[in-house]
Amino acid sequence: MRPGGRQGAGTSQLIRRDLAAYAFLIPWAAGLILLVVAPLGWSLYLSFTDYDLLSSPRWIGPANYLELFTEDDRFVHSILITGGYVLVAVPLQLGAALAAALLLAKERRGKGLYRSLFYLPSLLAASVAVSITWRAMFDYGGPVNGVLGWFGVSERAWINDPSTVIWTIVALEVWRFGAPMVIFLAGLQQIPGELYEAAALDGAGRLRKFVSVTVPMLSPIVFFNLLLGIIGAFQTFAPAQLVGDGNGGPADSTLFYALNLYQQGFDHHRMGYASAMAWLMLIALAVVAAFLFRGSRRWVHYGDNT
């Protein structure tokens, strides 16, 4: 066979292989376009319209965005509530997750059972049933008041007090530390034992080993959990809807951003306005993520720069 014939056959095989690869990519590409790109484009269009879910969208330009920043006091309040919640709940959750991971990383009998029990709240806490149960726990006559009564603390409705209801939701978020705990556990198991041995030879105690070895080696895991935790906390909805009174109360103390967005879209039938809020959340999360990535250069240590 002539060389040209062999080259032509090889080229046809490459083409067939590429076509097969593209054929397998078609379902993924179709899903990306239909389920991600198209909805994003439609919501961006709606954010510049007046749309009440019943009639056709009416183009109004940037009026929704202008109203958000100049006329809507509840929008600003929801940002403050959500921002404060993120600043408090996320670090507390990561601290609890790391503490549990350090305890469960040690070899002991039944460690698999303990790990499963600690992880279980992450599977349940986002559900409607758990949010309702959490509300009942902190209400009058609930278990929390019953336990505190043993120590002489007077009974109170934690969920009806604007100064305490937000802390019940923070407690629920901290209780969901199972997912970051598992990731911390995986990171702890990847730290070489030689590093701890070298630190021990230098006279380092437990605290010094934790600060000088564990924390730097876990810094990429901390960054990953921090980023996911912030994104998830910004989107908190079910606890705000069900632990509070469902309308952001009492006294708008549980008016989280996602709850305010839902109310604008489905309670007040202002879907164009809600779409503008959704895009502002997307932009805010992108800015926060960019800031974290830029700042991570100073404190996140990878294998090639430790």
Account of the 3D structure:
It is a single chain. With 306 residues, this protein is mainly α. The protein has two domains: 3-46; 67-299, MetI-like (MetI-like fold). It has 13 helices and two strands. It has helices spanning 3-46, 63-70, 73-104, 111-124, 128-137, 143-149, 165-175, 178-189, 193-201, 206-234, 238-242, 257-267, 271-299; strands spanning 49-50, 58-59. The chain has a two-stranded antiparallel sheet. β1 and β2 form a beta hairpin. α9 (193-201) crosses α10. The N and C termini lie far apart (57 Å). The mean pLDDT is 88.
| Number of continuous helical runs | 13
Helix share of residues?
over 70%
Structural class: mainly alpha
Kindly report the CATH topology of the largest domain.
Answer: MetI-like fold
Give the N-to-C terminal Cα separation.
Answer: 57 Å
Name of the level-1 CATH class of the largest domain: Mainly Alpha
How many independent structural domains? 2
Into which percentage range does the β-strand content fall?
A: under 5%
Outline type: globular
Q: Strand order across the biggest sheet?
A: 1-2
Number of strands: 2
Residue ranges: pLDDT <50 for 5 or more in a row?
Answer: none
CATH superfamily label of the largest domain: MetI-like
GO biological process, one term: transmembrane transport
Protein name: Sugar ABC transporter permease
Keywords: Cell membrane, Membrane, Transmembrane, Transmembrane helix, Transport
Pfam families: BPD_transp_1 (PF00528)
